[in-house]
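ok, trying the design again with the full structure, not the truncated one.
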């Protein structure tokens, strides 16, 4: 039994104009302490997947099929108390805009106090301050007592992101889903935050699901990578394997878009992702794929396994 298992999950946003198929038959599992990266272009369903794992699908989204199992238990069958517990001690999510995720009217210390009160019940200010200071030290914040007195607008982007990570850790969750959390940071800060998450995954056995459109970030951080396209998983495997020999043409294009020393310009993938208001009866990547054949327009490739990698493409090269 995996810590978290997602089985054939399909999610639609049923808007007035169309049903948007944000996730189609997504399946994967993560184990304790594992670092999974989820990568794909804008609109590929990454954030929808993060929310669905927590049972927090936003209106007008509906789970159409499949399930999410947390420690073997289907979250759709959990009662309110179990769900609340799962969202605190089980899994939690951190978002890109760290300062906006903090309440501007209260200090960092009050944020911690709220989390501790919710998680452990009432306790003295001194006790919660000591725990908050220890957590801020864990995330590499110097002068934690001073930081606790500050409001969101007084924290830099990198500092606010560390405070959010510490607040997530305050609940001792087994899984932390990080949605584009380094996107707004400069490269040096990105590396510092990713190094911190790696250290936490090793020291505390916390499982991380890192969502990013940037395959560079994913390759730096994750042990396993899941590539998403048009709400589907198109390739999954050990990051080192997928990066050294990707099978899916979309993964190849993503890797080719990485800047290298001699190639500073990004090789953008030509064309646009498809509309998700249609049910795919063909390969959704076909209009942009350099490897496509006639078959790709008349059949949808099933997921198959090759060299321990899952691939949704008919061909190997
Ligand atoms: N509340 C909503 N109502 C209608 N459609 C939605 C809603 N939320 C997301 N979508 C649509 O679902 C699809 C997947 O969106 P999602 O935000 O999950 O993608 P993403 O990979 O996280 O994109 P990004 O990289 O831009 O954050 C998109 O077509 C998006 O427009
Ligand atoms: S199935 Fe065809 S169109 Fe789709 S990725 Fe493979 S080669 Fe390209
Ligand atoms: Mg998103």
């Amino acid at each position: 039994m995996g810590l978290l298992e997602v089985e054939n999950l399909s999610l639609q946003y049923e808007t007035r104009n169309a049903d948007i198929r944000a996730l189609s038959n997504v399946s994967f599992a993560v184990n304790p302490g594992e670092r999974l990266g989820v990568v794909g272009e804008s609109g590929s369903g990454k954030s929808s997947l993060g929310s669905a794992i927590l049972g927090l699908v936003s209106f007008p989204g509906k789970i159409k099929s499949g399930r999410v199992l947390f420690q073997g238990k289907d979250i759709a069958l959990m009662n309110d108390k179990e769900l609340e517990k799962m969202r605190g001690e089980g899994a939690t999510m951190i978002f890109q805009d760290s300062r906006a995720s903090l309440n501007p009217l209260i200090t960092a210390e009050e944020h911690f106090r709220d989390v501790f009160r919710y998680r452990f019940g009432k306790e003295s200010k001194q006790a919660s301050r000591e725990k908050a200071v220890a957590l801020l030290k864990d995330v590499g914040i110097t002068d934690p007592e001073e930081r606790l007195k500050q409001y969101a607008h007084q924290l830099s982007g990198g500092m606010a992101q560390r405070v959010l990570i510490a607040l997530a850790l305050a609940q001792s969750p087994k899984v932390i889903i990080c949605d584009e959390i380094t996107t707004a940071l400069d490269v040096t800060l990105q590396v510092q935050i990713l190094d911190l998450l790696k250290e936490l995954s090793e020291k505390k056995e916390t499982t991380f699901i890192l969502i990013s459109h940037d395959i560079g970030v994913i390759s730096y951080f994750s042990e396993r990578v899941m590539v998403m396209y048009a709400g589907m998983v198109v390739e999954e495997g050990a990051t080192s394997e997928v990066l050294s020999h990707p099978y899916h043409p979309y993964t190849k294009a993503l890797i080719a878009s990485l800047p290298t020393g001699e190639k500073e310009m990004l090789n953008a993938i030509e064309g646009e992702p498809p509309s998700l208001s249609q049910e795919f009866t063909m390969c959704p990547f076909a209009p942009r794929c350099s490897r496509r054949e006639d078959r790709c327009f008349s059949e949808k490739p099933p997921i198959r396994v090759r060299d321990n990698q899952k691939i949704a493409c008919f061909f190997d090269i």
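Keeping the full-length input from now on. The longest helix spans residues 187-204.
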